[in-house]
Write a sequence for this structure.
């Protein structure tokens, strides 16, 4: 079992900056991210949105910001391991912790910094007949590679930004796109709606609900839809169905760690220490008791900076609380 000084949980903006800061303070750390990619909410929920409120970055997409944060995070060679879901944190009598990854005890550590944000994001399901049966066989919840839809007849469910973004992304490849929306309200950004409406082969079907997904041994072949205004029903032949009706966050439970929480937040002090010695928490998952929470990228970064310096002091009491300015470095 690998022994380290610090385990950082999560590679969202807070965990990425914490990873960089642990390099600044020469802490022997490993960062564990449950998903196969970095960026947390930035990549999972709003990759194409523009962000304006990060210091020194007047305007950038969340995706680009995540890339830059990752580049900075690995600059000082601190490892980040993906597909590493921390399933439990088990305290030992000697003030160390076992870290269970994907159900297996994988690390022994002196400290833990929890940057798990709002937890995992799992796509909302439609909950209709055929959805589970044809999962992975023509049903998609995100678009990772638009060219995958080349020459395909595609239906997209949803009226928000993701649904319209996906329609625009696959439009150069798909032969036919139907965008299905159930209550007549399009919530996507106005420009996205105008863009999609200008494409002749994207048809928006309002007030339309999927009743059933049909298919054969090779995957889905059609959807059975219902117009909740006209009450008409029809079968629409398709090759792929993209379900873009949002994500829900799964809270994290480290069952062996009796953390004090306030509602959904891990309660921390102003040094980002949790109720358990050696365990710290920052970013969207943590809150200083009785203070309002500013769930923002730059705030999580500042919290990570403070936490890492406190962790250094905890690990090496003889060291200074503040390390040095990064402008002293020659990287
Ligand atoms: C639509 C939208 C727009 C936003 N716009 C802005 C904006 O313009 N400006 C701004 O400052 N903020 C914005 N925010 C808020 C900002 O994205 C969050 O404050 C920020 O992402 C929080 O960072 P975090 O690292 O604490 O958590 P997250 O981004 O939630 O990252 C947590 C990471 O931890 C991982 N994780 C969770 N549990 C585990 C586990 N058990 N094991 C391993 N890994 C785990 C997750 O997979 C995830 O990658 C926006 C948020 C949303 C939803």
């Amino acid at each position: 079992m690998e022994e380290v000084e610090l385990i950082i949980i999560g590679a969202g903006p807070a965990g990425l900056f914490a990873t960089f800061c642990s390099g600044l303070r020469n802490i022997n750390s490993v960062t564990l991210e449950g998903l196969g990619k970095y960026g947390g909410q930035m990549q999972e929920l709003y990759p194409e949105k523009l962000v304006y409120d990060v210091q020194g970055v007047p305007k950038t997409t969340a995706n680009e910001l995540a890339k830059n944060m990752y580049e900075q995070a690995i600059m000082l060679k601190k490892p980040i391991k993906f597909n590493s879901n921390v399933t439990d944190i088990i305290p030992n009598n000697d003030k160390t912790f076992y870290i269970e990854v994907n159900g297996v005890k994988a690390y022994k550590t002196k400290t833990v910094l929890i940057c798990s944000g709002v937890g995992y994001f799992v796509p909302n399901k439609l909950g209709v007949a055929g959805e589970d049966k044809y999962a992975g066989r023509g049903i998609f919840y995100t678009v990772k590679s638009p060219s995958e839809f080349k020459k395909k007849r595609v239906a997209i469910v949803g009226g928000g930004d993701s649904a319209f973004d996906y329609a625009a992304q696959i439009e150069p490849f798909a032969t036919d796109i139907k965008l299905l929306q159930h209550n007549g309200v399009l919530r996507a950004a106005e420009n996205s709606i105008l863009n999609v409406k200008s494409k002749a082969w994207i048809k928006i079907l309002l007030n339309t609900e999927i009743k059933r997904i049909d298919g054969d041994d090779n995957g889905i072949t059609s959807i059975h839809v219902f117009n909740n205004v006209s009450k008409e029903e029809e079968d629409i032949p398709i090759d792929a169905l993209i379900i873009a009706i949002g994500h829900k966050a799964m809270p994290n439970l480290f069952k062996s760690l009796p953390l004090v929480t306030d509602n959904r937040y891990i309660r921390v002090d102003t040094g980002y220490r949790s109720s358990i010695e050696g365990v710290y928490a920052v970013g969207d998952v943590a809150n200083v008791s009785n203070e309002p929470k500013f769930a923002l990228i730059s705030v999580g970064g500042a919290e990570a900076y403070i936490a890492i310096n406190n962790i250094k002091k905890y690990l090496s009491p003889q060291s200074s609380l503040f390390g040095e300015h990064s402008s002293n470095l020659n990287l």
